[in-house]
Amino acid sequence: MSSLGERINHLRVVRKGLTLEQLANKLSIPVYQKDKIVDYKPITSGTLSNLENNKHRPNVDIAIVLSDFFGVSVDWLLRGEDYPEKTIPFDRMKLQDLFASMTPEQLEAQERIINEMRRKALKDSE
Q1: Looking at CB atoms within 10 Å, which of 52, 82, 89, 116 has the fewest?
Q2: How far apart are CA 55 and CA 57, in angstroms?
Q3: Does this model's pTM top 0.70?
Q4: Pairwise CA distance, residues 22 & 12, whole Å
């Protein structure tokens, strides 16, 4: 998936199984007045089609809405870079302390879970 349009199409069709119209009905972008959201405007299926066909690039609001809806990072959506799933921020020291307190069996179980998550992410991104 080398283009933005291919990534959006993959997310819509493969991950969510939606038509352009179905996706459009689920999405809306905020309308601002003086830095406050006052309303929401629907995203049309035509706009989504133009994005998938690489005729247009999304504005910031559309990129954020798509990123949130599909659960991917904006970097991955726009540039195809970064790990495709959003990551949860963590405190590295707390994580090290947690792993240090685990038994070898618990560590092996965590490793299996992580490897399974990696396999799923790779499969989903194909």
Answers
A1: 89
A2: 7
A3: no
A4: 10
